[in-house]
Amino acid sequence: MLSDEKMEILERTLPLYLKHDIEAWKEGERIKSPFLDCLWGELYGSINSAFYSNEITEEEADALRKKYLGLGE
After folding, report:
1. Is 10 within 8 Å of 63 (Cβ atoms)?
2. DSSP per residue over 29-73, as a string?
3. Residues in contact with 50: Cβ distance below 8 Å, sequence separation at least 6, in sequence order
4. Distance between CA 25 and CA 37 in Å, rounded?
5. Burial class of residue 2, CB neighbours in 10 A (0-12, 13-18, 19+)
6. Which of 16, 26, 27, 69 has its CA 20 to 30 A from that of 34?
């Protein structure tokens, strides 16, 4: 698992499309959007895309999935 400091650095250097989907997910949770399932899927896909495009590491992808999507350990 990434330290808080590494997670902070990671989130500042993410690809723009992934930052956008994280923000959309957080806003959806905040307003209790009826489309959370769609936002969840978009964010999951963006994390996977960044990983398979070698823009983030597997450890970073796992940390993002755990933090935002509740997946993992």
Report:
1. yes
2. HHHT-TTHHHHHHHHHHHHHHHHHTTSS-HHHHHHHIIIII----
3. 14, 15, 18, 56, 61
4. 10
5. middle
6. 16
14 in helix, strand or coil?
coil
Q: What angle do CA 11, 14, 17 make, to 5 degrees?
A: 120
Amino acid at 7: M
Show pLDDT as tens, one digit a residue, over the chain (73 residues): 788 899 899 999 999 999 999 999 999 999 999 999 999 999 999 999 999 999 999 999 999 999 999 997 6
Round to whole Å and give the CA distance between 11 and 61: 11
